[in-house]
Amino acid sequence: MESAAVLRGLGVTVRYLFRRPVTLQYPEQRPRVAPRFKGRHWLTLYEDGDERCVGCELCAIVCPAQAIYVKPAENTPERRVSKGERYAEEFQINMLRCIFCGFCEEACPTGAIVLGHDFELADYSRQALIYTKEMLTEPYPGASGRDPRREV
Ligand code: SF4
Ligand code: SF4
Questions:
Q1: Is the pTM of this model over 0.70?
Q2: Contact in structure between 42 and 113 (CB atoms under 8 Å)
Q3: 4, 9, 24, 63: which has the highest count of C-beta atoms within 10 A?
Q4: Quick one: pLDDT at residue 152?
Q5: pLDDT tens-place string over residues 80-99
Q6: Are the beta carbons of 95 and 60 closer than 8 angstroms?
């Protein structure tokens, strides 16, 4: 009886020897996240470079962790930042509070805020984890790698 159990155990070991390992040698090997993975936020731009965010604060209202701060300002004929009446003069996300639920992306009426695939967000200070508008805005349209789903 005991030898049968040992053989069965050995059989399991041998079977797993020839299976592809599920562990990765991170960080040398990079994991591929699922397409709908919710990682670092981005504030996206239109093709012409205008900001999609219209400073409506819906994302801040819906955020269950109260991680978002938006300070809206009016567009003027001399200085037009977004296609709406307003834009976000300041925009902050406290990544220490964020639980990556994606509610902000769901609530955004212009598709401005998207959660991308970056997940290596560790840093050395609390201040560095409060992302500013400059840190959140993608450097050029499409740089975030996420297509906003909705148009104005
Ligand atoms: S992902 Fe969720 S917790 Fe994080 S900022 Fe958006 S709404 Fe708030
Ligand atoms: S990111 Fe979207 S929901 Fe948040 S303030 Fe800008 S337009 Fe409104």
A1: yes
A2: yes
A3: 63
A4: 39
A5: 999 999 999 999 999 999 99
A6: no
Query: Can you read off the two tokens belonging to residue 37?
Result: 């993975």
Ligand nearest to the CA of 97: 1
Low-confidence ranges of the chain (pLDDT < 50): 150-152
Instruction: Please give the pLDDT value at position 147.
Output: 77
Neighbours of 54 (CB within 10 A): 22
Ligand 1 site residues (CB inside 6 A) read 63-65, 67-68, 93, 98-104
Peptide bond into 27 cis (omega under 30): yes
What letters, b where the CB count within 10 A reaches 16 and e where it falls short, cover 25-45?
eeeeeeeeeeeeebebbbbbb
Q: Ligand 1 centroid vs 103 CA: distance in angstroms?
A: 6
Sign of the torsion formed by the C-alpha atoms of 12, 14, 16 and 19:
negative
CA of 124 to the centre of ligand 1 (A): 21
pLDDT of residue 21: 84
Q: Which residue is closest in CA terms to ligand 1's atom 2?
A: 101
Q: Which ligand is nearest to the CA of 39?
A: 1
- Any idea which residue has 């401005």 for tokens? 112
